[in-house]
Amino acid sequence: MKYRVFFFAIMIGLQGSTLAAVDCARAKENVDKLVCFNSKAAAAEERMALAFHHALQRGVSPEILRQTQSHWKKNVRDVCINVECIVGAHEERIAELYELQ
Q: Using CA atoms, how far apart are residues 96 and 101, in angstroms rounded to an integer?
């Protein structure tokens, strides 16, 4: 287990903002600003982006991923007004991404 955590820490460190779905240079919405400037929200965004990437690698249809991601972003993530909500929304989406076939 220790090695798995270490591996994911390295992966996130290496891939960093290349995985993030938020362009912090253009963040206008409150939720995007929270993701950009709060370490807990940013870490949740990175974990979700990694789960999205893994879904693609497993062969989940890119079209299904785009549709479900867009729906999640609009109806779940973007309605959040605080970090706790954002982190919870991301954790739920991560679970969904790992369940997609």
A: 10
